[in-house]
Amino acid sequence: RALCWLLAALLSMPVLGQRNVPMRVKVALALFITVCAQASLPVIPIVPLDSSLALMVLVQQLLIGVALGFAVRIVFAAIEFAGELAGLQMGLNFAMFFDPTGGGQVTAVSRFFSTTVSWLFIVINAHLLLIAAVVQSFHSFPVSDAPFAFLRATQPQVWGAEIFSLGLWIALPLVAMLLFVNLVLGIISRVAQQ
Mind listing the pLDDT tens digit of every residue in the chain (194 residues)? Predict the structure, then answer.
């Protein structure tokens, strides 16, 4: 149960879940964290393996792990979206790079923001806090007869809107400053054309 939960969380996390981290490392890390956290886990009710409840509990564990990793990924996506907006205002969206994490093309400013936030994620030990949050989530979302009751608490339907609102709030100071610079340059070009 805990191994499925942690493996799903590690596969969807921003830094540890990237494609350049080998799958063996992810599985070994999930197994190591599971063994270390086993003493602090709550008592799990006995669920027969041949029942439909066992399948529902497994799906619940996978969904919770993916949701925890995806929640952190939303913050990264918001910062990358802020980089897209800033690059659009600066006129730097023509410079595209290949993004190994998403497998697509991203702008230079977005890639810079993404690399900076990934570096800060490791430097401030947020990966350790995230692993502690995953271990704590075993207490918050225990195994029960209603495996999908956690969906009412997490509300995954609002996460998409959060990406855009967070990205706009992060990029707003830079966009406002660039708009002010364009306005000043427009006034200067009208006053002194030469």
Answer: 667 777 777 777 777 777 778 888 888 888 888 888 888 877 777 777 787 877 887 887 777 777 777 777 777 777 778 777 777 777 766 667 666 666 677 777 777 888 888 888 888 888 888 778 777 777 777 766 666 666 666 666 666 676 667 666 766 776 777 778 778 777 877 777 66
Distance (Å) of CA 64 to CA 44, 99, 141: 16, 27, 8
Q: Is 158 exposed, middle or buried (0-12, 13-18, 19+ CB in 10 A)?
A: exposed
Q: Return the axis-axis angle of helices 2-12 and 52-90, rounded to nearest 10°.
A: 20
C-alpha–C-alpha distance, residues 139 and 90, integer Å: 47
Give the type of residue at 49: L
Closest CA to 112 of 90, 80, 85: 80
CA count, 13 A, side-chain hemisphere, 77: 16
- Is residue 134 within 8 A of residue 28, CB to CB? The reply is no
